[in-house]
Structures are given as structure tokens and as C-alpha cells.
Amino acid sequence: MVDRSGGTSLARLGLVEPWAEPTLEKLGWWADENPAPGAEEIMWALARSPDPHLALRTVERLADAAPQWSTIDTELRADIGLRARLFALTGSSTALGDHLVTHPDRWALLADGPDRNDPPPDLARRTANLLRAVGADPDAPLAGAPGGSVATLTGAEAVAALRTAYRDELLGLAAADLAAVGDASLPVMEVDDVACQLADLALAALRACLAVAVAEFDPGPDARFTVIAMGKTGGCELNYVSDVDVVFVAEPADQTATRIASRMMRVAGEACFEVDANLRPEGRQGALVRTLEGHESYYRRWAKTWEFQALLKARPAAGDPQLGQAYLDTVSPMVWKAAERDDFVPDVQAMRRRVEEHVRPDHAERELKLGRGGLRDVEFAVQLLQLVHGRTDEEIRSPSTLTALEALARRGYIGRDDGANLAASYRFLRLLEHRLQLQRMRRTHLLPAEDDVEALRWLARAARLRHDGRRDVVGVLLDEWHRNARRVRRLHEKLFYRPLLESVSRLPADAVRMSAEAATARLAALGWASPEGALNHLRALTSGVSRAAQIQHTLLPVLLEDLADSPDPDRGLLSYRKVSEALAQTPWYLRLLRDEGAVAQRLMRLLGTSLLVPDLLVRAPEVLRLLASPTAGRPDELTRDPADVAASLRTTVGRQLGMTSAVGTARSLRRHELLRVACADLLGLLSVEAVCEALSSVWCAVLAATLDAAVKERSAEGPAPARLAVIGMGRLGGAELGYGSDADVLFVCDPVEGVDDSAAVRWATQVVESVRRGLGSPSPDPALVVDADLRPEGRQGPLVRTLRSYREYYARWAEVWEAQALLRARPIAGDADLGKRFVELVDPIRYPADGLPAASVTEIRRIKARVDVERLPRGADRSTHTKLGLGGLADVEWTAQLLQLQHAGDLPELRTTSTLEALREAAHAGLLTDDDVAALTAGWTIATRARNAVMLVKGKPGDQLPRSGRELAAVASALGYPPGGDPGVFLDDYRRTTRRSRAVVERVFYGG
Q1: Inter-axis angle of helices 453-462 and 416-440, to 10 degrees?
Q2: Where is this region: Adenylyl removase (predicted)?
Q3: Distance CA 43, CA 182 (A)
């Protein structure tokens, strides 16, 4: 030390508390003049402690408690290893510091710490120490085997003795682990060595606990009992503080065996750690102990994929070693066939979701274990690769994550650099986890908050991090944490997909390359039904030496992971190839996917779900730019206001010269908007009402703009002889249009002064035919069908009528079904005043002042029954037919319309073209209960959403839900159900919702 004059020097050593100097003087380590030999070395060792103040307080307590303190003090001055271990330990762990103060004679465990060249303490030595602590013979067979040794201490006495012995072992191991923190010249214990020794210590403790339990419940001379370690204990990679996962096997698995298992778990929980047996067959609901035959029967018949994944780490821990080995011999063949199961991919995906769901949102950025880029990412990736490729390669079957990772790299399943980088990051994350748990011997995986500078500084020093001149030690820690988390996540994505690309790409001769068989196996395991076809797509995308191929090679690992989570990865990859080939000459396409992660992620979800999206995308690629994440203060570009869209469309079309150009522009803009709405719908950004409103608004704008262009073109021949209006009917009139809906309309004209009706109708018909021909011409887009079949006299009647003709027809000939159809009538294009007059004309017809006669009600019910029978396709399932099925669209709409015909004459609030609005107003008027409206609304909503989803998924209109398979899974995913989940849940929800809707229809519409 340079300055012996007091506070300044202590501050340089990190000792700033006012009590530090008196405490140092009391211990004889601080003096203004003539310091004692070795004191300066002690001070520097203390300064290197993660928390010098905590270390000093603990050592002061040790000096007060230890009769042999003078001996300890002498050794500290002379022994660099003891100094480093003592101060690093007491500055890192309050719990172990307390243990040392309680048992001061244990200081010798620190003086005798292992040297770099000494072999680490082995399992046999630790087992003997803990067995002796409970009075069991370490030289006899293990308890649980016939003739095995049992403890002479039982009850609370055994627990107390075992607790002390276990903490002694932990103290010595932690001191050796922390030695390099106290002095950089001492050997560093790798985190995997520490984890393996902790796992061995757990096995030794389990054996001692079993010896106590067997002593308390004698199982008989021939009974056999074994404990199988699972999880991190089985994988020889345990934390300082962790549950120890186990499975119990016994012959016989009787009541005594169950008592032994229960008592062993209680002894371990009170003395050492919690024992968790929930990985046993049937989990918490299953028997605690089973025979070997019982385990085999369960795993052959009932086990899920995640249970075989857990068995990857199984190893005998305590009890009869022969029975333990027999257990492994029984389950191992089943483990390595798990990837062949039909439900392998859904189970793996479900497990991934469960892991992510365990993370609290406010902890996501600090979670070492379960967060993105955390320990689980590494472990899950390694285990999945083992399950896929370990079927034929025994060299990668290690239960240890790091050993398996090294084997995967050595055998070529992942790149060597990737394997080394992932292992380095895994070790770093485990080191932080170990240090956090050591502090108070509590189970935690959460980094301190970024504003907790003192806690972060302590953790950084405990993890052997130092400032680098540019950043202080806290900055170094945070940067290292974020860098390693990002690297883990990136490599997690690469582990599955990069080797697939390497297997189909041109590589240097010395590069690691997967075989085609291995690549096919991995794609099959990750969810591709046709892995050979997927490989062909990858070859096509990455072949050659062009810049596009290089970008694809960079993009595809991430894109494939997103596709693997979609309902149909095969179709998604094919669609991606088609889109990429179609946009090969679009310079910004691949650059956008590369630079905008949200665009690529959203696109894969869309392509893996929908056939309509890629069909439209190749002709409207500009919509891709709208998939970018919204910026601060700006809404998502996918959710534009329908009124703004309609106004922009009409303005753009209105600038065109000539009908052909106007129609082409209108169709192009409609394609753009159809794709935009479809993307927003599939991404969950729009409600079903907003989707219907947007689609209806686009259709109306297209009709209005095209009609304006047609009138403008005809005006070149002279002034228009008539005013013309388009009346929206059906779902168009109700603003409830779907992706595949036709545009139901009526055309009405009114001659200008001096023009007779026939000339006006002739001119108007020519304009309408021009519009219909233009919009209806062949196109790969969804059809633009302008359907006028709801006009008077149907297809046999004139296409266009004058307003007077409509008045005469409805006055003389209108039937009840026509009044019902007019409930949806609203002007959507053409002359606004004429449209208003048409509405005034039909209001008395659709809203009869005296209500609906009983005979008309009966007629409506008769027509509805006939429609249900005659129009339902042969073989259709009425429980899942969205339009004509029970409780579906027709049921709800006819019910609402019947109420309007009966009551809208007296209740003006019922005069709406919207089905849902009519239902809400019927409830306000007391015609329906709130429960009735909720049931009908739910039925209409789920049927509309499902009908739209069928169009999105299949790329063509359809009213029947798929019965099973990937199309059903895609429909469920499009409706917001979890990807990879059981689509049967959606079908159950659909049937349940429509059954409730149908019950209301039966009562309200049919009068049941």
C-alpha cells in the first residue's frame, strides 16, 4: 500500500465504511507505523473480495468465535491460498460465511483447498463422508440394495448431522470455486467442473438420506429400492441451490417403499435441498414409487415426448445399482425412438411455449434461465438435436449439456465455431447463476436490476470481471450479459437450420457438412411433412454464387425457425420460394427481409398459414413494406382508416384517362388493400367487424370509382341522359363483406328532364355493363363479381330500372322475401340524391308500419327451412358449415331480419343494415335479452371469422370448415389459437358457440 495515513488508502481498497479501520486495527491488520508481517498481503486479498465490507464483518465474527484464531491469523499471513479462499468466500456468500462462523474449526477446509494438479474430490469420498455423518458404514453396499448399510442416526439427530456435513462439503467446494476470485494466480475451476461436483455431492446426500429412511422403515432383506437422478443432477450439471429431480423404483413397490421415498425426501429437504419427484409417470397424480415393470408399461403406452426428453438425463443416484441400471436399460431404447412419434413436433413446440410462458414480463430482460438467450435456449436446443440424431449416433447421447454440445460439433451436426461459442456463453451464464445463488444460498436466476449498481458491482467482482479502461465493472457485466444472451439466441436459431443449408450449399472442402439423411431427419423432426421437398426448396434458394443466394443463406436459418412454428411449414417454404422467385428482380425485397426483422417474422407466419397472401403478394409486393414494426407515435401501417383508403382509391382512379386504365388501377388498388387487410387480420391487428368494414369499403370505392370512369367515358358522346345510383345489398349493404363475397347490388336510374325512361334505361344499362365487364374480366385475384340477382324478377328482370319502375313493382308485386332483402339496402355509389330517394322509396316496404302479418312470418320460416335443406351441399357437416350450419351466419342474420320486419316500423332504432347493430338495438328495445344477444353475436362472429379464415388459408372461398389436418390447424391459427396446439380445441369452441346461438334461433326465429 502506498499511503499508510488512513482513509485514502482504505478507500483505494474499497473499504469506505467508518467502522472498517477500527475493525482492521482490532484484527491487527492495520497500523500507521510498523505493520505486522503479512498484514499488507491480507489487506490486498481483502480488497479483491467481491464485497470487502461483508468479508471483513464475517472474519471479525469468525475471530470472535474461533478459539484458534491466532493460528488462523498466522496461516492467513503466510498462505496465499487460504487468504484468497477465505476472503472470496466470505465476500461472496453470507450463508456459507455464517456456517463458517458457527463451526470455526471448519477453516481447515479452506486451508486444504485443492491445487490445480490435484484430482477433484470424487463421489466415493463425498459419499463416505456423508454416510459417516449419519452413522452408516461407507464400506458396505448402499442402502436400498439387499444387505445395504443403514444409518445409526435417525430423526432430527440424523437431519442435524447431515445438514452440517453437507454444508461442510459445500463450503470446501465453494472455497475452491472462488479461489481465483481472491487471487488470480490460483487455479480457476471451470463452471462445468463445479456443476458436476455439485451433482456428485447431491448424489452422496441422496445416499445418506436413503440410509436414514431405510433405517426408519425396514423394507425387508429382499427388497430392492433405487433412486434415479433426473434433470441437472442426472446431467452432472447442478447449481448451488436447486431442486433435485428424482424418480423412485422399487421391488416391490409397496407401502413400505412409498414411506421410504417420502421420508427420504423430507430428510433431504430439511438437511440439504428440496427433492422433486414430479417427473415420475403421471406427475403429481401418479404413484410416488413404481416397479420396473410399472415404469416400462407407462412409458410404452402413455408417456409424452417431453417425458422422454427428461429421461435424456436419467442416471442411477442411490440405492440398488443393479436395479438402477436395469431401469436405464429399459427406458433408453424408448428415449431414442421418441423423435419418430407422430406428435413429436407439437409436443416439442408445446414445451417451448411452456418455457416462455414461465417468464414474468417484468423479468424477461433479466432472466438467466428461462428468458430469450438464456440457459434453457441452450439446453433445449441440445436436447432436441440429441433426440433427432441420437437415434443412430450413440456418441451424442451424453446427459451433460456441454459434453453433448461438444459431441454434436465433433460429429458435424453443428459447426465447430458455433459449438464452441455456445459452450462459452453457456458457461458464462451458469457462472452468473452460481454466484447469484451462492450469495444467500437461495434459488434464483434473476440478475439485479440495472439501477441496482451495488448488486451488479458485487456480481461482476464475484464473476471475476474487471473494468477495461473504457467501462467500469458494472458496464462490463451488463455488456457481457447482453452479448452472451444475443449470441445464445442467435446460435439457438442456427443450431437447427444452418447445417441444413450447409448440406445443400457449396462449401469449402474442410467445412462440416451434414449428410442428406441427417438433414432430412432434422427437417422431419422440426415439422416438415415432406423433408425431401423442403431440401429441394433450400437448394433452389441458396444455389449459385449470386448476392441473392448469399443473402438467402443468411436469412433462412431465422426464417426456417419461424416457419417451423407455423401451421404448415411445407406450404410456407414453398410459398416463400415462389415469392422469392417472383420478386427476384425487385431490388429491395431481400434487403428488406434482412434488415427488418419484424417483416421477415411476420411474413413467415403469413406464408405458413395462408395461400391467399402469397398469391396476392407476388402482384402487390409493395405491401411487404407495411409489415415493418410501427414506429413510436405512428400507428401500424396495416391498420389504415377505411374512409381514408376509399377516398385515396377514388382519387387515384379518377386521374386515369379512359375506362381500361381506370379499371386496371382500381383492380390493382383493390389487390393492394385486400392483401393489406388479410395481413392485418392474420396478425391479429383487426377485429372481425373492422375486417368486414374494410373489405366492404374497398368494394364500394372500387364500384364508385369504376362507375365514375364509365360515366365519364360515356359523357364524351354527349350529356348523360340519366342519373345512376348503385344500391348495396346483402353483406355489401350491411358492410359485412368477407374475402370471397360477391357484391350484391341493385342499379337504379332516373332520366333527366326531357329524356324518356327507355332511353335513360338503355344508357344506364350500357354504363353498368361496361362496369361489370371491366371488373369481371379474368384475373388471378379473387373474383370481382357484381351480382344483381336480387333485383325485381331476378335474372329475368331488367338489369337497370328507373326509380318509378321500382316504385310500381314494389307496390304491386313485392313479396316478403324481397322486403327482407331490402333490409340491407343502402346507397354505395353513383348519384347520392338518387340513392337517398331510393331509400325513402323502400323504407315503407322493409319497415312496414303495421308490422308483419302472421302469414308472412310463416312464409319467412318456410323459405328459411327450404334454403337450409336445398342449398346445403351434399355431405356437408351442418355443425361446422359457417353459412348454413346450425347457429351460423344465416341463422343469426335471418333472426335479426325477422325482428326488423316485425318491429322496425314502430322502432326507428332497428332501422340499420348491420346485423350486429340490429341485435344490439333489439336488446335495448326489450325484444331480446342480453344473453340472447351475446349468444347470437358470438355465433355470428365466430362463423364470420371462420369463413374468412377458410378463404385466407385455402386461397378460395369456402363455407365448410376443414375436418382435420393442417388446413384445420391453419384455420385455428388464423383465428388466434396457439400454433402447434390441438385444432380440435377450436372445433369444440366453434360447435359450443354455435349450439348456444342455435338455441336462441330456435326460440326467437322459429318460436320454439
Answers
A1: 120
A2: 1-500
A3: 11
Do 785 and 914 belong together in one domain? no
In this prediction, residue 933 carries a pLDDT of: 96
Rounded CA gap, 628 and 1008, in Å?
52
Angle subtended at Cα 123 by Cα 120 and Cα 128, rounded to the nearest 5 degrees: 115
pLDDT digits (tens, 9 = 90+) for 685-702: 999 999 999 999 999 999
Residue 252: cis peptide before it, omega within 30 degrees of 0: yes
Torsion of CA 162, 167, 169, 175, to 10 degrees: 180
| Residue 881 DSSP code | B
Q: What is the pLDDT of residue 777?
A: 85
pLDDT of the residue at 645: 92
pLDDT tens-digit profile of 244-280?
999 999 999 999 999 999 999 999 999 999 999 999 9
In a domain, 580, yes or no: no
Is the separation of the CB atoms in 441 and 96 below 8 Å?
yes
Domain that holds residue 385: 350-526
Provide the grid cell at 2: 502506498
pLDDT of 494 above 90: no
Residues 6+ apart with CB under 8 A from 681: 691, 948, 952, 974
- Rounded to 5 degrees, φ, ψ at 60 are -60, -45
**Cell numbers placing 292:** 420396473
CB 209 within 8 A of CB 127: no
pLDDT value of residue 361? 81
Q: Are residues 900 and 836 in the same domain?
A: no
Q: C-alpha distances in angstroms, 474 versus 267, 454, 457, 663?
A: 41, 9, 5, 64
Long-range contacts of 794-798 (CB under 8 A, 24+ apart): 798/761, 798/765
Confidence of residue 342 (pLDDT cuts 50, 70, 90): confident
Residue 299: all three cell numbers together: 412409458
Residues 816 and 870 in one domain: no
**What are the φ and ψ backbone dihedral angles of 798, each rounded to 5 degrees?**
-65, 145
Confidence of residue 345 (pLDDT cuts 50, 70, 90): low
Per-residue pLDDT tens for 848-886?
A: 998 899 999 999 999 999 998 888 888 899 999 999 999
The amino acid that residue 612 corresponds to is: L
Phi, psi of 446 (to 5 degrees): -110, 120
CATH number of the domain where residue 949 is located: 1.20.120.330
Contact 311, 221 (CB under 8 A): no
Query: Is the alpha carbon torsion for 514, 517, 523, 525 positive or negative?
Result: negative
> Are 224 and 145 within 8 A, CB to CB?
yes
Rounded CA separation 161/764 (Å) = 102
